[in-house]
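Q: What residues go here?
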């Protein structure tokens, strides 16, 4: 098990003092970098020891990857194990863990029953007594063709959501997106403009796209929004085919990587200072500086009669 615990990572160079600021708003966060598992019970066995180790190291909130309750593929289709929320074994196990350890847990996403024979790729926020405090259903489906042989059609089995979500927590407001949503910067900007201080993007990014784009996209979303970006990503082979990239990230509002989970299962953990959000936004206030504009497109030339 790989365990990366970063020293306090909450001070930016050339900080701008904030009038009336009190003590730093420190928060110990941990990403659990789990492997994709074929069923809920095995997924729970994978996640619990990592969660307990992170909690022992002072974590106040845990972040798990996309499809942390299990993931399989069947050709181009994503086929995660699923159940109704009320009887979902992985969800119930995580609720017990949250309650027993007085810790908040974000389930990056699990598969729950959806309409017309499909499932919903749903992220869930649990409080420190195991109650569900928020849900986010993934909006943008992973429908891509990387090559003639590597094709993914998440929408074949998963019903997309249509609501952006911010979770209210005692630590701050947390905007929730999932995996392929990372490629849609307007979603991140909307969440940040509406008060999110942390933006989370749990993922099961493929190794191929991860090597090319994962770090760049996460850092770009942090820089664009002047917010913390915390992205727990699964690692390793997917039952049925495919491979997840790992490298779970904690990125500060200046775009600096505070923690990287690497290419093995484990934990990436850091103490962040949420006051850095306001400090960074004061330095570069682009999030609130949108100017109206119109678009001019070339007109087709007409030939005189």
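A:
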């Amino acid at each position: 098990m790989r365990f990366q615990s970063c020293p306090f990572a909450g001070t930016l160079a050339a900080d701008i003092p904030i009038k009336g600021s009190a003590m730093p708003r420190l928060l110990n966060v941990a990403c659990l970098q789990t492997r994709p598992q074929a069923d809920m019970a095995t997924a729970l066995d994978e996640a619990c020891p990592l969660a307990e180790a992170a909690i022992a190291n002072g974590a106040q909130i845990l972040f798990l990857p996309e499809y942390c309750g299990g993931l399989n593929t069947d050709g181009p289709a994503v086929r995660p194990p699923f159940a109704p929320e009320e009887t979902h074994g992985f969800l119930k196990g995580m609720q017990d863990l949250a309650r027993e350890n007085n810790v908040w847990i974000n389930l990056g996403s699990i598969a729950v029953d959806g309409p017309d024979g499909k499932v919903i790729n749903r992220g869930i926020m649990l409080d420190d007594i195991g109650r569900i405090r928020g849900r986010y259903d993934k909006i943008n489906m992973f429908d891509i063709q990387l090559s003639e042989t590597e094709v993914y059609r998440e929408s074949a089995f998963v019903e997309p959501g249509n609501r952006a979500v911010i979770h209210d927590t005692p630590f701050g407001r947390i905007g929730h997106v999932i995996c392929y949503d990372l490629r849609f910067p307007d979603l991140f900007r909307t969440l940040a403009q509406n008060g999110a201080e942390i933006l989370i993007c749990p993922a099961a990014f493929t190794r191929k796209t991860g090597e090319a784009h994962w770090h760049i996209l996460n850092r770009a979303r942090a820089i664009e929004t002047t917010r913390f970006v915390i992205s727990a990503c699964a690692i390793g082979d997917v039952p049925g085919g495919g491979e997840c990239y790992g490298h779970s990230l904690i990125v500060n509002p200046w775009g600096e990587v505070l923690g990287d989970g690497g290419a093995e299962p484990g934990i990436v953990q850091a103490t962040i200072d949420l006051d850095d959000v306001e400090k960074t936004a004061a330095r570069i206030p682009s999030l609130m500086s949108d100017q109206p504009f119109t678009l001019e497109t070339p007109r087709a030339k007409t030939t005189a009669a």
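A: Context that may help when evaluating the design: The CA atoms of residues 61 and 104 lie 5 Å apart. The longest strand covers residues 104-113.
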